[in-house]
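Supplementary Note 2. Why include the ligand at all?

Several targets in our set were suspected to adopt different conformations when bound, so apo predictions alone were not considered sufficient. For every target with a known small-molecule partner we therefore ran a joint prediction. The input for thiamine diphosphate is given below.
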Amino acid sequence: MKTVKQGTYFWQGNEACAEGAITAGCRFFAGYPITPASEIAEHMAKRLPQVGGIATQMEDEMASIGAVVGASWAGAKAMTATSGPGFSLMQEFIGYAFMTETPCVIVDVQRAGPSTGQATKSGQGDVMQSRWGTHGDYSAIVISPNSVQEMFTLTIRAFNLAEKYRTPVIVLADGTIAHMREQTIVPPIESIETINRRKPKTEEKAFFGLEEIPPMPTVGEGFNVAVTGSTHNEHGIRFTADPTVHRRLVGRLNNKIKNHVDEIADFESYNIDECQIGIVSYGCTSRAIHEAVENAEKRGIKTGYIRLKTLWPFPESIIKKLAESAEKIIVPEMNLRQMFYEVERTANGLAKIIPLNKIGGGELITPEELLVKVEDGEE
Amino acid sequence: MTETFSIRKYLRDLKLPFCPGCGIFTVMNTFLRAVHELGHKDLSKFVFCSGIGCSSWIPSPYFIADSIHTPHGRSIPVATGIKLLRPDLNTVVFGGDGDIVGIGLSHFIHAARRNLDVLVIMVNNMVYGMTGGQVAPTTPFGTRTTTTPYGSFEQPLDVARLAVTAGACYSARWTTAHPDELKDSIKTAIKTQGFRFIEVVSQCPTAYGRRVGFKDVGEMLKWLKQDSVPIQQAEQMSEEESANKIAVGVFVQRKRLTLTETIYKIIEEAQRSAK
Ligand SMILES: Cc1ncc(C[n+]2csc(CCOP(=O)(O)OP(=O)(O)O)c2C)c(N)n1
Ligand code: SF4
Ligand SMILES: [Mg+2]
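The joint prediction is reproduced in token form.
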């Protein structure tokens, strides 16, 4: 077996993520062991050499993402995988990858934090860290799979977005999805879209500006590219005091994501135009919505939902639409309110936003618990 | 060699940011001379990585070359990603003592242990120069710095020896008062395989020399020259005698299987058996 073939597989979420990465063209992986993400590293260690790729365990998470950044500049599609504690250690480099426009994929398989917390138990506590974790003015692209199937397909999408926008992309998975086994369908490989970064033409010299998404050279090809996380002009030359250069660079880096929210944002929606009660959900928690909505409708409550497949950039327009029809919007999360505030801000008083939170022991929010909220609509 | 050495050939037309009399000029010049003497007309066979600090500015963005200026202390991991994918490129890391063996120490040891095929050139000015002269892991015991106003209460690290223990294929130490020996050492190191390390004990007149009481750069260079002893001689000395000496010379030169050799063999076999 080299790259995976069309077919139906019974994969673990982490395995599906690794196979998705390889299918997307990932040929470099560096990581440091951590529950519940280690199976990604283990699977990559076995599989990448079979397809001519490299997988290596580094001394820590900074080294892991550092090697990924180096590999990306050497021309490879590259990925690392971790969980909360390691994700925190990677934050400086995530900002670096953003600033230097280095495409790469970072998988954070969330577990219950803060700190070592409950290492083997699932959680959704890194939502805001994935958006605001690094320092400085930054815009994130964060993907949120809710099934083993999506660990495969959305990891491919993560690579495509990273390559297209020349930016780090975070796959925000969770211990539940990562460790469950489900049927996963791999479509005909030719039907899977894979995007590769745009390379410069020989005479091109501006790899950090002029265009919204500049072309990216590979080291060793004669482009003499100067890469720096310090503020730089379009040729990569440092300008550490000039306000104009900083505004231009950081403005463009944020705008290249902000100006394409509609293209980046991905969600599944149901009945959002004519519902009394809306649900905004994502990740493992969103697995409860179908049953809850079905039962609510049986009881005559018009219910709709938005299931976010990307968390950031936040898809404000669709949330506003839901807020225009629904009187109340429930936001179930395995944390103590994170996306809740974003929904509340976006709804801007058009609907009452009701939190539903549960943490600890990796316990999921059940369809019954969700139904209770839908029925009584109280905080 | 017919062509004469011209440093400009390798440098972008930019003003260098170093203070007058800084030892970094010597390291930069010596490295490019070595490259020139090895017959490289340009730096196209090289890729450079460096972290944060005055010393890390040597290649970035001044060299007309591919250079990656990484977060503080993380040049070696980035070099790892590059070298693993591009074993054909001479991967050279520049950094200060704070960058390489303060914040980046773990990466340094692990790269030597793995025998990552890179050359690390560390400018040891015994201080955190860029941030204003704070104590470094290499600061001599008792020295007053901005964060040790009563004198440093820690022992400095012997980095060239540490590299040997960690597994380096080449480890040498020189000072900026030994430009010829340094140049030859760089030439040897570029031609050697595996993890290679060169420590250059250097003067930082601004954040170190001035504070510890050196009158000028000339005095600092005299100190570097006078306090240096060849390794063989240093090894004969008592601990007390050698305490304030700088042991210079080549600490190790040996062959070991490199990381890239091992990994590429594994890939080849895995690909064959996966068919
Ligand atoms: C994570 C992080 N911590 C601290 C700093 C601040 N900082 C910049 S350079 C430097 C020390 C540089 O010392 P050294 O590597 O010895 O270089 P020198 O300037 O002496 O050549 C520090 C601490 C930083 N940039 N990043
Ligand atoms: S502060 Fe010290 S190390 Fe930095 S450029 Fe000035 S003299 Fe050199
Ligand atoms: Mg220093």
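Residues 84 and 301 of chain A are 38 Å apart (CA to CA). The longest strand of chain A covers residues 104-112. Comparable summaries for the other entries are listed in the accompanying table.
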